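Before we proceed, please read the two lines closing this message. Report back on whether the structure tokens fit the sequence:
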Amino acid sequence: MHEHDVVVVGAGGAGLRAAIAAHEEGADVAIVTKLHPVRSHTGAAEGGINAALREGDSWEKHAYDTMKGSDYLGDAPAIETLTKDSPEETIQLEHWGMAFSREDDGRVSQRPFGGLSFPRTTYAGAETGHHLLHTMYEQLVKRGITVYDEWYVSRLAVTDHDDPEQRDCHGVVAYDIKSGNVEGFVARNGVILATGGLGQVYDHTTNAVANTGDGAAMAYRAGVPLEDMEFIQFHPTTLPSTGVLITEGVRGEGGILYNSEGERFMFERGYANNVGELASRDVVARAELTEVNEGRGIDDDHVHLDMRHLGEERIMDRLENIVHLAEDFEGVDPLEEPMPVKPGQHYAMGGIETDENGETCISGLYAAGECACVSVHGSNRLGGNALPELIVFGARAGRHAAGTDLGEAEITTGRTEDTEPGEVETPVAPGAVETDEDVAADGAGETEADGGATLADPGQTVESAVQNERTRVERLLEKDEGIQQAEVREDLQETMTDYVNVFRNEDGLKQALAEIREVRERYQDVYVNDPSRTFNTDLVQTIEMRNLIDLAEAITLGALARDEFRGAHWRQEHQERKDDEWLKHTLLSWNRGDPELWYKPVILEGEEKEYEPKVRSY
């Protein structure tokens, strides 16, 4: 049994920043991560960090752009916290040695990004996330913070109170990939989930193979609501053959989108008459797919992104890695010809419900980064707003978990007097499958066999969770026949890509729920083909598969319930934003395997102004 004040799960941007902040407050901190920190997916972020740093810009302008980009589903206290704190956090990175790109006068460079009224995206070439990750990892090493590298956290150690809001999180359980041991980690002050995205729910994604939504799924099953899961961002420019990201920075520098007829369709077809390629990501992604669907795509699959006119010197100075990506994965030299691009799953705006200090409704459990929903991004994230979210809310979660008083949060978590119940008609029953041997069962509320042992002291809560997880792992390893997780994973990913993509309709969403249910039932017969106890990636992927099923279902349930068109959520039958009905967040609670839908209002009242919903045009 390992014991620390604060246990951070995940070592990407949010996890590293949280660990550093908690350590600065005097806490004994440990990071438990299934990947070495510098292999975390933050390293793949290309575009930049939005921060109001220059004369003529302000946090208020940044806040307005973010609220407008969110299609008025972001919460004002979270958005204003982000935009106020981002300049200081960005400057802190520079003081730690982050190699930002520079202007001739020595100032850090900033460029335009989609949906921004000022060029405030601060960047390091087209490798901003890579530089950020390495800069913070240096700070981690400098401080001597403990890292449990290649330990896969698969269960939260949470008390078993009937009411999730009465539960306490006392630690986590992790599988040591190197040794095969399952061990517990007691967190005296708090657990911070910073596990990143869930892109592997889809088959065409910019996300890494490791992005399986582990933190969101574990928190969901432990009793924390998932918020606004229907809002999935599809990045407009990914390489068709792989899903590899082509940064928005290409368009920020002046890259142009063309259809098969040579039209600059963002302007010529009227998708964004004012800013063209620099419209918000959801607008550009829908425009591209519309061009393809109406027969103006290239090879009926993609469009072209052209940056040749920028000149070799500018491209190689600011976008060199894009040249290599296009050459390596598509065989295209973007200095000589346009790149093929199409939309691909990129980011989850929804996630674990938290307040602006990173706290969930379960005492001692925090979340930060993409796995969390504060909500900063609402129904659509602006490019350049993900990295400041990592550092701003990672730092706040770390400080709060370490015991620092950050003041009372304005955003509430859990059920309050202003929440309302929701209903959605589904073709099949969502949630857990009734079975005597549910090899997938885990999370709080599934420990009834413990006879209430989880209500004892923290050590006993963690030990009970460890024993449950060891039993699950042994069952998976001892079973010698059934179905392999890869078979059901492929089916799940194809279902989500077919029916819960950029364009959605009621029949498709209901079909998706039926197919997800079938996948869940087949998963009950899953087994691990690799009998080894060390470096057993088959075991890890089998456990991850449960998370993908739960999150795919949550995304689809939210998408079916929200019968309006807002941000990244497009519904064929509902082509308008319904502010009188849907200025509210979608919440989904696991409820011991019986998902329950409910809502809470969006907070549009900020510190000095109230944000009034307006028509969102670019």
Q: What stands out?
A: Confidence is low (pLDDT under 50) at residues 437-453.
